[in-house]
């Protein structure tokens, strides 16, 4: 179940209540007359089955309440109520299979922003990957995979492509196009510095290592990327976020970027080129599979209407 809160002008309250009464999957309808101060109006609360939430949100947005009032949605961990059980029983479909498109757009839109936090995580992940490669430590490579934040923008690109939200695609592409080069440049500088001062022996990189799988691109790389992209999008659309950890540690996006940096520092240009190829294959495979999952899970109706994202800030920071 999801908890819905709607701030509505007084003259729109009855129409909003009709929306919630007429649609299956709603329970515990409450109205607080005159409770809202800014924006002024009434406050409506209800619990909504996840499989019914998308249609409810679309109908409320059709009343203009996303402009004249406010609509918020949050997950309920526990709902002990016969009314809630009836709401879930009457709602069409299964909650685990339902996609709340507005929630998905807002979530991926937020995670796709290029900001200091995103850049910091990506840089730290690349640095961890470079250390793991130089020290031949698969465990450190796995740590870099988990820390890397790149799945957010990749998921946003898939959502933008499916919904034709080019603003979302541009925002996510900007985050990746700026984030990876900056993180790799910082990693290159740190790698060279640690080599010069003798903290890490980068010269041993030319020997065979247990982490050489990172740069060896092949069909398996595409297969793993496709499976990871599909699993990641299923996780996001079904609100089963625990599965995302498995996605993070199954693809070699950040490790490939770190491997390319270390290879370039020591002059192994062939390995650096293969690492860039590995990175490209993983990025493309994740986006393609995530988009296919969204197309399969999309409702049969012709279009899905979602509220536009806020404009990208003039300052990247």
Automatic annotation (TrEMBL):
Transmembrane segments: 116-135, 141-163, 175-197, 217-236, 243-267, 279-297
Highest taxon of source: Bacteria
Keywords (A to Z) from UniProt: Membrane, Transmembrane, Transmembrane helix
Pfam families for the chain: DUF389
Protein name from the UniProt record: Hydrophobic protein (TIGR00271 family)
Lineage of source species: Bacteria, Bacillati, Actinomycetota, Actinomycetes, Pseudonocardiales
């Amino acid at each position: 179940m999801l908890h819905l809160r709607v701030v509505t002008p007084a003259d729109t309250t009855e129409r909003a209540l009709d929306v919630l009464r007429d649609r299956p999957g709603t329970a515990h309808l409450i109205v607080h007359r005159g409770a809202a101060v800014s924006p002024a109006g009434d406050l409506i609360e209800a619990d909504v089955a996840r499989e019914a939430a998308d249609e409810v949100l679309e109908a409320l947005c059709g009343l203009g309440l996303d402009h004249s009032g406010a609509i918020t949605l949050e997950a309920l961990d526990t709902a002990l109520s016969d009314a809630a059980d009836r709401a879930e029983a009457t709602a069409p479909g299964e909650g685990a299979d339902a996609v709340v498109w507005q929630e998905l757009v807002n979530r991926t839109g937020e995670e796709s922003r290029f900001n200091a936090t995103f850049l910091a995580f990506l840089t730290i992940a690349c640095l961890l990957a470079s250390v793991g490669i130089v020290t031949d430590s698969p465990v450190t490579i796995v740590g870099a995979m988990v820390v890397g934040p790149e799945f957010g923008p990749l998921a946003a690109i898939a959502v933008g492509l499916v919904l034709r939200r080019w603003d979302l695609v541009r925002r996510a592409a900007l985050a990746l196009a700026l984030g990876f080069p900056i993180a790799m440049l910082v990693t290159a500088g740190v790698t060279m510095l640690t080599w010069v001062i003798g903290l890490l022996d980068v010269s041993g990189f030319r020997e065979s290592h247990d982490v050489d799988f990172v740069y060896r691109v092949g069909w398996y790389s595409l297969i793993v990327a496709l499976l990871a992209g599909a699993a990641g999008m299923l996780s996001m659309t079904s609100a089963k976020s625990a599965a995302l950890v498995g996605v993070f540690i199954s693809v070699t996006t950040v490790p490939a970027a770190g491997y390319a940096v270390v290879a370039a520092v020591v002059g192994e240009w062939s390995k650096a080129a293969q690492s860039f190829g590995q990175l490209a294959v993983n990025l493309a495979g994740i986006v393609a599979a995530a988009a296919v999952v969204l197309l399969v899970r999309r409702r049969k109706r012709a279009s899905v209407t979602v509220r536009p994202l806020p404009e990208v800030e003039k300052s990247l920071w």
